[in-house]
Prior knowledge:
The chain is of the alpha/beta class. The protein folds into 2 domains: 3-124, Rhodanese-like domain (Oxidized Rhodanese, domain 1); 147-267, 3-Layer(aba) Sandwich (Oxidized Rhodanese, domain 1). It is built from 10 helices and 10 strands. The strands form 3 sheets. The protein has a 5-stranded parallel sheet with strand order 1-5-4-2-3. Strands 8-7-9 form a 3-stranded parallel sheet, covered by helices on one side. β4, α4 (95-104) and β5 form a beta-alpha-beta unit.
Amino acid sequence: MSLVSSDWLEKNIDNVKIIDCSWHMPKAQRNGFEEYKKDHIPNAIFFDLDKNSKINTDLPHMLTDINSWELIMNSMGISNEDEIVIYDNSDVISSCRCWYNLIYFGHDPKLVHVLDGGLKKWKIENKITNNEIIPTTVSNYKAIENNKLVKNKQEIDKNITLNEFIVVDARSRERFEGKVPEPRKGLRSGSIKNSFCLPFSELINDDHTFVSKDKIKAQFRLFNLDLNQNIVFSCGSGVTASVLALAYSLINDKYMPTIYDGSWSEYGKS
């Protein structure tokens, strides 16, 4: 149950930990935390995707180290046993990256959900929001890394020859085909050799909900992919790759989200 509905969350709002993981592309000129301070789902705790990523790198949104992750969870008052619902108010469905991070660091996948439709749908339905920032009690979170859920550049390069897994890119077709410049400076246009393109936006409805499972299956079958094949997702900086990973998990119960963490921000360096 990776996705939960707004009605489900409204009914269970006092029984789960709620995380606001709103993050916006730089060109949007929006600040997720400033928006959170003005308006959010009651009891929500803000997760800063930029600050809670690896610090000593010029690559955006890289997984942090295990000790730092435990400190982040402890400061947010998150415990290993907590059932968690993550949402966002972002056009790139950034909540999915927090979902991936939690699973990578060992939180039970059955306890980690994304709010289908996020804050956009919640507000369309006139459900309650407020600007109250709740105090948190420091917890004692213990993380366990699952290194099988992340790929690095060396593994991506090696796979071009060995073909041990399939790489699916969540960026737009124009970026994937090198027809438009990358939004980040210093990156060439194009894509990883032998990879496929499935823009994440093709799996998202106008109200920010995911399309039906049948439509998700149809999109993946366009590549003649066996739904049991090992798939690694990539994008610009690991955010929308997580959207595809969550979508794929909806049609493949056995799939554990696997991301090329550096994505095109690393691979496309000139």
